[in-house]
Amino acid sequence: MMLGDFGTSYSKFLDLDDPGAPPYVVETKNLPQSTRVAWATGHNGQRRGDHFVNELTALGRGGAAVIDEEHFVLLDCGSRDIKFIEFKKNRLEDMGWNAECGASMGFTIELLEKYYDLDYTTLAVPEKTFSVTCGVLGMSHIFDAVVAGVPVAVAVAMFVKGIALNAYRFAKSPKKLYLSGGLCDNPLFVQSLPCQVIPLGRFLLLEGLKQAMCNNLRKSA
Amino acid sequence: MPAPHELASPLRNVGIVGVPPLEVIRRLNRDQVRIYDLDEPLVQSALETTAPFVPRVYCAVLRTVVQNALQLDLDAIFVDVGPGKCDSAGHIATILADVLGIPIIRTINEDQTGFGTPICDSGLPLLEKLQRITAGVACAAPPAKIPPPCPPTAAFWGVPPRDFSILRLFPDTTHVYGWTRCMENKTPADERLEGRYNPTIPTVFFAQSFCAKTALAQFLANRHPHALYLDADVAASNSTKAKIQAFLELSGVPL
Fold first, then answer.
1. Which domain holds residue A95?
2. Please, are residues B206 and B231 in contact by the beta-carbon 8 Å criterion?
3. Rounded to whole angstroms, how far apart are CA atoms B223 and A89?
4. Is B175 in CB contact (< 8 Å) with chain A?
5. Predicted ipTM of the assembly
6. Do B243 and A92 touch (CB under 8 A)?
7. Which residues of A touch B154 (CB under 8 A)?
8. A218 lies in a domain?
9. Is pTM, for the whole model, over 0.90?
10. Quick check: A179 and A75 in contact, CB under 8 A?
11. Is residue A218 within a helix (H) or strand (E), and if so which, with residue range?
12. Residues A50-64: pLDDT tens digits?
């Protein structure tokens, strides 16, 4: 049985019939139209799965399964949006999904890396930052800074730090933050978050999807 | 405030905004006047047609009022501007009086006689609950059929949303609180009733974006031990719907 997390830029899959096989990633733009799975989540998941679980539910279930703490804040930074979930005493306390003001953050960060031929593993966290609430609108800060003589790499790093701070505030500025999504692999972004960060990788929604599926099967049994 | 029978010509079709006093509704019912609840989407035109008269960033319900008023052939509009509605309704009354050539009658509903809230506490689907409650605004008599009560597993607090589709996400065992409960009780200015909630069940505190009630919704959500505060504008986005689904499911509410 296949599980799929159909994100805007990347789709992630897990084959439950092959217990040893790790989850894998396919660029969404390269995904055949015919691709379907038994259980799906993600922006494009509704038309791809026999069963659909929305991303917030998958995030909550995944976090509760993987994080061994009664109280935690989990932030998922995707290509198109950011969302967080907070548990207290093993119970849902708060949540948020910013698809508007947090729009296209991950997508823009990747776009800039490719366009300017940068490597985020080599960029240092800058002292200064831009005030960024949206990937698209934030790009004008980069262009203005470059025109003013700031090196491109520094301007982009200030942009990434601005995005990280915005995401951190969106998650209500916790002391300790569990992070999921593709930006876990971006050291500049992770190090720009002003708190203890525990990256959980980009496959957490698949774990949540698995939990939701098991929960559903238990109910129907 | 002129009573319906004191207006120059007989009324056939009138609009209401908010919940006018029961006495007004009773007279309109007696005179067999057709009542249009302008708070609800009634016409097909685009909401954008209201932009020359009302800012785009404004309560979607009141923009809908203007949208309906521009399209419908009405003889008069009764706008409740009392504590049971909002200050913004008064401004909308001013605008409609300027734009339309019909009487715009401001009312202040301070009715205190409670009719009860059996629909709010029933096991009807939440969508049907709110449809029945909003339809009840145009009728002075209590509902003929009283649905039986059910034990709650979740609650919806707030005003009837502009987009009723979010109501489909809740289980039938959802009880209704907030201003919608006041509507059914026919006491829209009853602040004590509006502020009531059940702390033992997961509750979604909802308000229309740009409505003053967002402050009350968020305040009560902060006090409630297990709540989700939510606001939505014209149409509920996918993320809004996902928040409701996730909140109910992760709170263990049987769906």
1. 68-199
2. yes
3. 17
4. no
5. 0.84
6. no
7. none
8. no
9. no
10. yes
11. helix A204-220
12. 999 999 999 999 999
